[in-house]
Design a protein that fits this description.
The protein is mainly α and 1401 residues long. Helix content is 54%, strand content 1%. InterPro entries: ARM-type_fold, RPAP1/Rba50, RPAP1_C, RPAP1_N, TPR_RPAP1/MINIYO-like.
C-alpha cells in the first residue's frame, strides 16, 4: 500500500511519494478530462484543441461538469484567451516562434495622422543655458487637478494650454467650492448660460425611431424648439416644470437622464469639470429646493462653507514635515470651528446625547469644546455622545476609548435605574441597549486582558443588574416581622401556547431542563438575563478576575454586588454560585480573613488600594444572601467554609476595634449579625449563643444609650440603630428555636424520627432570662413618643422590641415550664404599664391615621415602579426621590403597628380575657376607614408590589384575628363585623405565595364563621323575601319569574346559613392540594425554625387562591367531566359527593350574591354566568336534581338583576375560556341531548340571545341547532329578563332576518313550542318589513320581498301576527300586542309594494 502524505512531511518527502506513485502505475483518485470552453462553442481550431487538452480539470461524481445557464444570453467569445494560455513545461523558444510576426505585418498597417491643421507652437526663449526644471510645488500651486490624480507632466501641459488660450492661471486654478451656486437661482443661471451655447446634437434624442432618412435634421429641429421654449420661460417656471416632470417620470428614466447629463458635462465645460461635488445628483438639488426656508438657514452654514485653508490651521506645516506638503481639506475639516448650536427648541424628536456622568444633555445646550463632548461625526455641533456612538467606542482598539465608553454606559444605566431619565427620554433605554447586544458586549469585554477595560465592563454590568435602592429597601425591612423572607427575582413566565412539546425517538416529551439546554445563549438571555449570564460562564470569569487580576476596591465591591444579585434570582442560581470552582474559597479567604493588618494610614483616614486580605462587608452580605436560599446551603457555608469562626471574630469585637474604616467596620458587624439571624432562622449556629452570651448581654444593655439624641447626631448613627434592631431579631430567632426544642425531642420518640431535624443545642431555660432586659429597653424606647421628630428615628427599634415580646409569649405557653398564674400576672402588668398607654397615645393614633398614605393597596402609585422594568431582569421597583410615600419608607407606620398587633395577638392567645381591653383599636374610625378603602382597592399583581403587599396583608390578618377574638364579647365589634368580613373576603384571593397558612386560617375561622355574617340571624332572609314582594308589585320581570320557583330566596338563604360548617368543609376539601404549602407557611409564621426549609419564598406565579375560588367546586367537576369524556367515557351521572359539593357551592354563592355582593366583584358577570352554566355540562342529570334546581334558579335571578345584566359582557372571552361561542355551542348540543325542555336550562340559553349580543350566537340557534326550538318551552312568565332586551333595537342583519322568517314560515318556530323566541322573531320581522329606511338598495329589495311573501302566506294566523304586530308585552299570553286592523301607513306601504309588483307583471 502506497504511503500518504502526513503533517510535517518536507518537500523532498512529497517528491518521493510522487515518484513511488508514478512507478506503481496505480489508478489516480481523480480523473482528468478535457473541459470545453463554453464561450467558443463547438467550432474550435485544432490549435485551440491542442492547447485545451493541456488544461487539468478535476471531475467529481454526482456533480455536472458545466453549471446550468443563468440566462438565455449567448456566451461571449474571447479571441485572445486561448492564445494567452501558457504552461510551465512549454518550450519558451517554441512559444516565441509561434507568436512572432514579421516586420512587414506591422509596418503595413501604419496610417499617418493628418497634422496639417494643427497649429505649431515654439517653446519660449530664455536666457538660461538649460530649461528650468519643473518643481511639484509650482505645478500644484498653479492649477489643481479636479478630475483625480494627474502626473506632473499632465498638469504642466494643462497649464500651458490654459496660457495659450488666454486664460489666467488664477482663474484656471479657482476652487470648485467658489463656483458652486449657493442659491437655487445661481444654479438656474448657470444652466441658462449653458443653454445659450447649446450643443447642436442632443444627448438624449438620437432619431433612430423616426424611420426617416433625414432623422438628423429632425433631431436638430426638436433640439432648437426645446432651446427656444426654455429661453421664453422664466426661472420660476423652469423650476416648476422641472419639479412636475420629475414627479411624473419613472425614477429609472430620471437616473438615466442624469447619467447622460453628468457624463456630457464632465467632458464639455471646464465649469462642470471643476465641481468637487460631482456625486451630488439633481434629485438631491430638488429636495433642497423643497425644504423650508427655516431648514435652509440652519444648514446653509454647514453645507456651503468653503474648505479649510492654511491660514485657518492652528499649527502651520513646515518644510520637511512628512506628508504635510499637500493640503487635503476633506481630511482637515475636523480642525474647523464647530457649527453654531441650535438656538431654539424644536418639537421634533432628537437623538439623546449624554455626558460622561450619564446625564442627558439638552439639544440647546452650548457647552465648551474642551470638555471632550464633541468628538463624534454625526451632529458635531451638539455636545454629548449617543448610545450608538458609545457602542462604537466600546469596540475601539484604543484602551482609553473602550474604558470611557463602558464607564459612560454604566452611569447612564445607573441613572435609568434611579428613574432620573424616565420623563426626559422617549422610549426604553435598557431595552434598546439589550436589543442592541449590550449583554454580550459586556461579557466579551470581561474577557479582555486590560485591567481598566475589565473595571469599566464590571461597572457597566453592575449598573445593568444591580439596583442599590432595592438592596437598601430589603436591608431596611430585614428586621421587620418575617422580613427575612423574600421573593426570588425570577421573571414571570409568559404562556407560550404556540411552542409544541418535542417528542424523542422513544415517544417521551422533552423536559424543561432539556429545552433549556437546547436553547442558544441569546434565546436564554432574552427571556432571563441572569440565566443567560450563567450560561455564558460569567461566574468562572469573575473568579478568574478576583484571583488573578486582583482588582481595586470598587471593582471588588461591584463584583460582590453582582454575585448578590445572581443569588437573589433563585435557589438554583445561588447553588451555581456555591458550586463554582474556587469562587467561594477565593472570596472567603481574600475578603473575610480572620486576621489582617491595618490598612496604611494617610492623615487620620485609612486608605485602601487593594482590598485583598481585608474583611469586606459585601462579602459577608453575599454569604448571608446565599444562606437565605436554603438550609442546606447555610449548613455548607457554616461547616465547609468555617463561617462560624468568622461570625465570632466580627461580632465579639466592637466595630471601633476592627482596624477598619468606621463605616466599613459597622457594616461588617451588621452583616455578620444578619448572617447569624439567617442561620438561627433554620435552627443552626445556635451553639454560638452559649459562647457569645456575655457579648450579647453587653450589646443588649447598651441599646438604651443608642436611642439618645446625642447618639443620633454621631456619624453612621443609622447603622448603629440597624445593628441594634438586628440584635433583637437575632434574639427573636434564637428564642423561637429554643421554643421548638421540646417539640423536636418529643417527636423523636415517634416513628418519623429520620424525617425530623435534630434538636438544636439550646433549651428554653437559656433564653427565658432575656425578656426582662428587652421589656425594660422597650419602656425606655417608648419615652420618645412625646417627641415625634426623634420618634421617627427609633420607632423601628421599638417595633423590633415588640416583635421579640410577641414571639416570646407565643412560645411560652407551649413549654413544659409554663406557669399560668405567674405568666398571666406578668401579661396583665405588661398590658397596664405598656400596651394600654401605647395604643391610646396620640402618636400611635396618628400612625394609624397615616396607614392610607403609606398603603400599597390604597395608594397603588406608592408601589408602582418609577423606573424602567425589564421582563428578563425583574426588580422590586424601589427608587429614591419618589414623590409618594412608600410602605418600606423609613417613616412608614407599618413595621411598628405590625409589631404592636403581633404582641396583642400573642398575649390574647395566652390571656383571652384581655381581648376586650383592646376594643378601642378595632372600632377606631381611622382604622375602619383604612380597611374600607383597602377593600375597594384593586391591587396590581407584580413583583414590585408583591413584596410590599405581603407585609400589608400580614397587618390586616392580625387585625382580623383580634376581631375574631372580640366577637363573642363586645357588641361594638359586632356592629362593625361586616367590614372585617369584607376584609377577609377581599384578602383571601390576594394572598401571595408564602401566605398559604393565613389563607387556611381565613377559611377555617373567619370567612364561614356565622358571627361574621350577622344577616343570617338578624332577619336577613325575611328582608330578602319582603324586597322581592315589593319588586313584584312594581312589575319587575325578575321578581315575576321568581314566583315559579319551588322556594323563595329567603328560605334558601336560611337553609344555606344553617349549613355554613358543611360549606367550609367543602371548600377546604377542594383546596387540599395546598396542604404541603400550608405546612411550610405554618412553620414560618409560627416560628418553627428547625422545620424551615428556605427563607426564599416560592416563585411569584400568582395568588395562592384564584379570584373565582367561590366557584371552585363547579369548575373542578366540569374539568373532571371533560377529562373523562375526552378519554372516551360518557358521564351519565355524578357521584353523591359531587352533588353535595355542587349544592354547597351554590348555597355559598347565593349568600355572597345576596348579602356580600362586593366579595365577588373581582369576578366579571360573564365569568359567573359561564361557571354556573358548567353545571349543565357536568353530567346529564345533575341540573335536574332538586337542590341544584332550587339554588340555581335563585342564582340566575340574582344574575339577571339590572345592575348585573348591564355589566354582562359576552363579547370578550371570560377568564378561563378561549371562546364563548364554542362554549355556547356545547351548551346547545347538551340541551338537544338531555334537557327534555327544562325551563331552567332554557333560561340560561336565552341570556346570550339578547339583542345587543353577537349575531353569531343567534345564528347558531336558528341555523345548525334549529331543532331545539321544538323543546324550547320557556314561558314568558318564566323569563327572568325583560322582553325588550330581545326586541330592541330592531334587527338589521339580513342573514338573521332571513333565518327568523324561514323558521316562522316553515313551522320550525311556533308559539306553542317556543313563545319567547316566537315573539322576538315576529317583532324583528315586522319592524324590518315596514321600515321606511331606503338607504341601501339591497336591503330595500329584501324588505319588499319579505313583505310580498308575508302578504301571500296561506297561514292566516302567522300572516296576521306579522302584519298586525304592535309592540312586545310579556304580561299577555301571546307575548305581543296587535292592531285590530292594518294601520294606514302600513296599508299604504303594502299597497305600494303590491302595485309595483302588479305593474311589473
Amino acid at each position: 500500500m502506497l504511503p500518504r502524505p502526513k503533517p510535517g512531511d518536507s518537500e523532498d518527502d512529497l517528491l518521493r511519494y510522487q515518484e513511488q506513485f508514478l512507478a506503481s502505475r496505480s489508478e489516480p483518485a481523480v480523473r482528468i478530462i478535457r473541459k470545453v470552453d463554453k464561450r467558443k462553442g463547438e467550432t474550435e481550431s485544432s490549435e485551440g484543441l491542442n492547447e485545451q487538452r493541456n488544461r487539468d480539470v478535476v471531475s467529481i461524481q454526482g456533480i455536472p461538469e458545466e453549471p446550468p445557464p443563468l440566462n438565455s444570453v449567448p456566451p461571449k467569445k474571447s479571441r485572445f484567451k486561448t492564445q494567452n494560455v501558457q504552461f510551465e513545461d512549454e518550450d519558451p523558444e517554441e512559444r516565441i516562434n509561434r507568436h512572432d510576426k514579421h516586420v512587414t505585418v506591422v509596418l503595413s498597417k501604419i496610417i499617418e495622422r493628418d497634422t496639417s491643421a494643427v497649429p505649431v507652437t515654439f517653446p519660449a526663449f530664455t536666457g538660461a543655458a538649460f530649461p528650468k526644471a519643473c518643481h511639484r510645488s509650482e505645478v500644484q500651486g498653479q492649477i489643481p487637478s479636479p478630475l483625480g490624480r494627474k502626473s506632473i507632466f499632465a498638469q504642466k501641459m494643462m497649464l500651458q494650454k490654459a496660457k495659450e488660450n488666454g486664460l489666467l492661471a488664477k482663474e484656471a486654478s479657482q476652487s470648485a467650492m467658489e463656483r458652486i451656486p449657493t442659491r437655487a437661482s445661481d444654479d438656474v443661471e448657470m444652466k441658462m448660460q449653458i443653454h445659450q451655447h447649446p450643443d447642436p446634437t442632443s444627448r438624449l434624442i438620437s432619431g433612430d425611431g423616426l424611420g426617416k432618412p433625414d432623422s438628423a435634421s429632425e433631431v436638430k429641429q426638436i433640439q432648437w424648439e426645446n432651446e427656444q421654449r426654455l429661453k421664453s420661460m422664466s426661472e420660476v417656471e423652469i423650476l416648476e416644470e422641472q419639479r412636475k416632470l420629475i414627479s411624473q417620470l419613472d425614477p429609472r428614466l430620471v437616473a438615466f437622464v442624469k447619467s447622460k447629463m453628468s457624463s456630457a458635462s464632465l467632458t464639455n465645460t471646464d465649469l462642470e469639470m471643476s465641481r468637487p461635488d460631482k456625486q451630488r445628483s439633481e434629485n438631491e438639488e430638488i429636495m433642497e429646493l423643497e425644504t423650508t426656508a427655516e431648514m435652509e438657514d440652519e444648514s446653509s452654514d454647514r453645507d456651503l462653507c468653503p474648505p479649510i485653508t492654511v491660514d485657518e490651521l492652528p499649527v502651520k506645516p513646515k518644510e520637511g514635515w512628512v506628508h504635510m506638503d499637500k493640503l487635503e481639506p476633506e481630511k482637515l475639516e475636523w480642525l474647523r470651528d464647530l457649527p453654531p448650536s441650535r438656538k431654539k427648541g424644536t418639537k421634533k424628536a432628537m437623538q439623546a446625547r449624554f455626558d460622561f456622568s450619564g446625564s442627558l444633555i439638552p439639544p440647546t445646550a452650548d457647552l465648551p469644546t474642551h470638555l471632550g463632548l464633541h468628538h463624534h461625526g454625526e451632529e458635531p455641533e451638539l455636545a454629548g455622545y449617543s448610545l450608538q456612538e458609545l457602542f462604537h467606542l466600546s469596540r475601539s482598539k484604543v484602551t482609553q476609548q473602550r474604558t470611557l465608553a463602558f464607564t459612560t454606559l454604566a452611569r447612564v444605566l445607573h441613572k435609568v435605574h434611579l428613574g432620573e431619565l424616565a420623563s426626559m427620554v422617549k422610549g426604553r433605554i435598557i431595552s434598546t441597549l439589550l436589543d442592541a447586544g449590550l449583554l454580550f458586549l459586556l461579557r466579551f469585554a470581561l474577557d479582555d486582558n486590560v485591567e481598566v477595560v475589565i473595571a469599566g465592563a464590571v461597572r457597566a454590568l453592575w449598573a445593568l443588574l444591580v439596583v442599590p435602592n432595592d438592596e437598601e429597601c430589603l436591608d431596611r425591612t430585614f428586621s421587620w416581622l418575617h422580613g427575612m423572607f423574600t421573593f426570588p427575582l425570577l421573571p414571570m413566565e409568559e404562556s407560550d401556547d404556540e411552542e409544541e412539546d418535542e417528542v424523542d425517538e422513544n415517544g417521551k416529551k422533552e423536559t424543561v431542563e432539556e429545552k433549556e439546554a437546547r436553547k442558544q445563549d441569546h434565546e436564554v438571555a432574552q427571556a432571563d438575563i441572569i440565566k443567560g449570564l450563567l450560561k455564558m460562564k460569567l461566574l468562572h470569569r469573575l473568579r478568574y478576575i478576583l484571583e488573578v487580576f486582583r482588582p481595586g476596591p470598587r471593582v471588588v465591591q461591584d463584583m460582590l454586588e453582582i454575585l448578590i444579585r445572581i443569588c437573589r434570582h433563585s435557589a438554583a442560581a445561588a447553588s451555581q454560585v456555591l458550586d463554582c470552582p474556587r469562587l467561594m474559597e477565593t472570596i472567603i479567604s481574600e475578603f473575610l480573613p480572620c486576621s489582617w493588618t491595618s490598612p496604611s494610614m494617610q492623615g487620620h483616614r485609612p486608605t485602601l488600594e487593594r482590598p485583598h486580605g481585608l474583611p469586606v462587608a459585601g462579602a459577608m452580605k453575599l454569604i448571608r444572601v446565599l444562606a437565605s436560599t436554603g438550609r442546606h446551603a447555610c449548613a455548607r457555608l457554616l461547616n465547609n467554609y468555617k463561617i462560624r469562626a468568622r461570625l465570632l471574630r466580627f461580632i465579639a469585637v466592637e466595630p471601633e476595634d476592627l482596624l477598619l474604616e468606621a463605616c466599613e467596620a459597622k457594616k461588617l458587624s451588621l452583616e455578620a449579625l444578619r448572617m447569624w439571624c439567617v442561620a438561627a432562622g433554620y435552627g443552626q449556629a445556635c451553639d454560638l449563643y452559649r459562647d457569645m452570651y456575655p457579648v450579647l448581654i453587653r450589646m443588649l444593655q447598651s441599646i438604651p444609650e443608642l436611642m439618645s439624641k446625642e447618639t443620633s447626631l454621631e456619624p453612621f448613627s443609622n447603622l448603629t440603630l440597624q445593628r441594634a434592631e438586628t440584635l433583637l431579631l437575632l434574639l427573636t430567632t434564637v428564642t423561637q428555636t429554643a421554643g421548638s426544642t421540646e417539640e423536636l425531642k418529643a417527636n423523636q420518640m415517634g416513628e418519623s424520627e429520620s424525617a425530623l431535624p435534630p434538636p438544636p443545642p439550646l433549651d428554653w431555660s437559656q433564653v427565658a432570662g432575656l425578656q426582662p432586659f428587652i421589656k425594660a429597653s422597650l419602656k425606655t424606647c417608648l419615652r420618645w413618643l412625646t417627641e415625634p421628630i426623634h420618634w421617627e428615628n427609633v420607632h423601628m427599634l421599638a417595633a423590633a422590641h415588640l416583635v421579640y415580646l410577641g414571639s416570646f409569649y407565643s412560645q411560652l405557653y407551649v413549654q413544659s415550664t409554663f406557669c399560668p398564674v405567674d405568666t398571666l400576672q406578668e401579661i396583665e402588668a405588661l398590658t397596664s404599664e405598656v400596651l394600654l398607654p401605647l395604643i391610646g397615645h396620640q402618636t400611635v393614633l396618628n400612625m394609624i391615621d397615616h396607614l392610607r398614605q403609606f398603603s400599597a393597596l390604597c395608594a397603588p402609585t406608592s408601589c408602582a415602579a418609577s423606573r424602567e422594568i425589564i421582563h428578563g431582569l425583574p426588580g422590586f421597583g424601589c427608587s429614591e426621590g419618589m414623590n409618594v410615600s412608600n410602605l418600606s419608607d423609613a417613616k412608614s407606620p407599618f413595621p411598628f403597628l405590625m409589631g404592636l398587633f403581633y404582641v396583642l395577638d400573642s398575649i390574647t392567645n395566652v390571656h383571652k380575657g384581655l381581648a376586650c381591653k383592646f376594643l378601642s383599636v378595632l372600632v377606631s374610625p381611622r382604622l375602619l376607614d383604612y380597611l374600607c378603602s383597602s377593600c375597594s382597592a384593586l391591587p396590581s399583581f407584580s413583583l414590585s408590589s408583591a413584596w410590599l403587599l405581603r407585609h400589608e396583608y400580614h397587618l390586616q390578618y392580625l387585625l382580623l384575628k383580634l376581631a375574631c377574638k372580640q366577637m363573642p364579647l363586645k357588641a361594638e365589634v359586632s356592629q362593625q363585623i361586616t367590614v372585617y368580613h369584607k376584609i377577609a373576603m377581599a384578602m383571601l384571593p390576594r394572598l401571595l405565595p408564602g401566605s398559604e397558612y393565613q389563607a387556611h386560617e381565613l377559611l377555617s375561622t373567619m370567612i364561614f364563621n356565622p358571627s361574621f355574617i350577622p344577616e343570617g340571624r338578624c332577619g336577613g332572609p325575611e328582608a330578602v323575601d319582603l324586597s322581592q314582594l315589593l319588586r313584584l308589585g312594581d312589575g319587575d320581570q325578575c321578581s315575576l319569574s321568581s314566583q315559579f320557583t319551588e322556594s323563595t330566596t329567603g328560605t334558601l338563604l336560611r337553609e344555606a346559613y344553617a349549613n355554613l360548617a358543611s360549606l367550609r368543609g367543602c371548600y377546604l376539601t377542594h383546596l387540599a392540594h395546598l396542604e404541603p404549602s400550608v405546612l411550610r407557611s405554618r412553620d414560618i409564621y409560627l416560628g418553627h425554625t428547625p422545620f424551615v426549609c428556605s427563607q426564599m419564598l416560592s416563585e411569584l406565579t400568582g395568588p395562592v387562591v384564584p379570584s373565582d375560588w367561590a366557584f371552585l367546586p363547579l369548575v373542578s367537576l366540569y374539568e373532571q367531566t371533560a377529562k373523562e369524556e375526552s378519554s372516551g367515557r360518557t358521564v351519565e351521572s355524578v357521584s353523591v359527593t359531587s352533588k353535595e359539593a355542587v349544592t354547597h357551592c351554590l348555597q355559598w354563592l347565593l349568600i355572597l350574591e345576596t348579602w356580600h355582593e362586593d366579595a365577588l366583584k373581582s369576578v366579571p358577570p360573564a365569568a359567573k354566568f359561564c361557571r354556573l352554566a358548567c353545571i349543565f355540562l357536568s353530567g346529564s342529570d345533575l341540573f335536574r336534581e332538586r337542590p341544584v334546581q332550587r339554588f340555581l334558579w335563585a342564582l340566575l335571578l340574582a344574575l339577571c338583576r339590572p345592575t348585573q345584566l348591564n355589566a354582562l359582557d359576552l363579547t370578550v372571552p371570560p377568564p378561563g375560556l378561549a371562546s364563548f361561542h364554542d362554549f355556547y355551542s356545547s351548551l346547545l348540543v347538551q340541551f338537544e341531548a338531555v334537557s327534555f325542555g327544562d325551563p331552567l336550562f332554557g333560561c340560561f340559553l336565552l341570556v346570550p340571545l339578547q339583542r345587543h349580543y353577537s349575531m353569531e350566537l343567534k345564528l347558531a340557534v336558528f341555523g345548525e341547532h334549529i331543532g331545539l326550538l321544538r323543546s324550547f318551552g320557556v314561558s314568558l312568565a318564566q323569563l327572568p329578563i325583560p322582553l325588550e332586551k330581545f326586541t330592541s333595537p330592531p334587527e338589521d342583519s339580513l342573514p338573521l332576518l332571513r333565518s327568523y322568517f324561514r323558521a316562522l314560515v316553515t313551522g320550525s318556530l311556533r308559539l306553542t313550542w317556543c313563545p319567547v323566541l316566537y315573539a322576538v322573531a315576529i317583532a324583528h320581522v315586522n319592524a324590518f318589513i315596514f321600515s321606511q329606511d331606503t338607504k341601501n338598495q339591497e336591503i330595500d329589495m329584501e324588505r319588499k320581498s319579505l313583505l310580498r311573501k308575508t302578504y301571500f302566506l296561506t297561514n292566516e294566523v302567522l300572516k296576521n301576527h306579522l302584519l298586525l304586530f304592535k309592540m312586545p308585552r310579556a304580561d299577555i299570553k301571546l307575548g305581543f300586542e296587535m292592531f285590530e286592523k292594518l294601520p294606514p301607513i302600513r296599508d299604504k306601504r303594502l299597497n305600494a309594494v303590491l302595485r309595483k309588483e302588479n305593474g311589473t307583471d
